[in-house]
Amino acid sequence: MNTNKKISSFGFFAMTAALFVTVYEYPTFADMGKSLIFFLLLSGFCFFLPVALCAAELATIEDPSYQEGGIFSWVGKVLGEKFGFAAIFFQWIQITVGFVTMLYFIIGTLSVVFNVPVINDNMYVKFLIVVLSFWLITILQFKGTQITEKIAKFGFSIGIVLSVIIMSILAIKYFSNGNHISLNYQKSDFIPNKKSWGMLTSFILGYMGVEASAPHITKLNNYSKTYPKIMIVLVFVAVGLTTLGSCIVSMVLPGNISANAGVIDAFRQLISPGKISWGVILLGLMISFGIIAQISSWIVSPTEGLRFVATKGLLPQKFTKVNKAGVPIPLLILQGIVVTIWAAVLTFSSGSSGGNMSYQIALNLTGMIYLVGYILFFISYFIIITKHKDLKRAYQLPGGKIGKVIIAGMGLLLTIGALVTAFMVPTTISSQQSSVYLITLTISFIVTIMLPFVFYKLYKKRI
Fold this sequence. Notes:
Blueprint: H1 9-20, H2 26-30, H3 35-59, H4 71-79, H5 81-113, H6 118-121, H7 123-140, H8 145-176, H9 183-186, H10 200-205, H11 223-252, H12 262-271, H13 278-311, H14 329-349, H15 355-387, H16 400-421, H17 434-462
């Protein structure tokens, strides 16, 4: 059994990029008009860049105990095992919500391109498709990270990069032919108003996950030098693609953009207004493939961290088991069960309120859960640079200690700010739906945050 097959630099880049560089959030961003540029630049350089740089430094600490388990080791080594477990749990559980969000997007896209609204409008059909699709994609990962790497390479290249390039070319042609930029974009302000700050979490979510591939870094050749370079390149690729794609959607479509069908609506407007052409269908399939690549990368990355946690005795021993390809099958099955539960909660809780609200709840809840993990991440980083300066690492943040404090401080402050503003009802939710939205979001968040600490206490008592 070979559980440590090497991954190429581009394969690792694609796997990591596929974790967070995506098109499914473009419609949510696009509804903000010019403010989307402000939010994406703020989130990109004051949150995403600090996370990427701090993760690069932590991942290259020469002490082997920091290199295994990713965020579990980074947090657990300095804050204690309980908080390390909580951090890896938040990284994992948030994506079990995020899987539903991504599949909502695919369903919304395919419902438009193939003109079958029932798969998006009927909650029972929608739930069934989400569950069956996720289990099928999970089974595809059973053959190991080489399969995931291939899916990520093609999915990221075709479904994300190529889609944005085509969208850009179509947009240039569209406006060159005399079509006007939407009033939603023209009349919006670059600096967001007070109500718009409730969307900050959604924008930060667009950059979450860059550190999730850390458990696989030892599969990279010369990872101490390669990993930091990949992280820095990823920052600029992600900020550029996300800003460009979101702006085009905003410029082409009027306000009230559908959260899970907005991208394909933009392509339809650019290619064949009022009808679905073969080009729209092809692009719909391409971006759906890009999301499948993202799901594939997320299925295997956090579970590898959880498997390491199991080897430390913090989860039942059966979760340490892997198949011949080194894939933790018991953990993937557990993950599938949790995703199925979330799919039921998020799909049926909105009732007649509409898919847009369930999508927005899933989007914000995903971000809020992960934000708590990032707070632990940054606190741990501050402790390491102040109390464990003797730890040798191949990469150091620029600017010495002052530079490190400034960069990590920006990340921590924006993380806390995003968590606070997450409880503001987004402008995309109507006043009639706001109570259901807040109740569902708050209860789901509180229960999820308590889970790892309750489990840790009870499980440690048992053993």
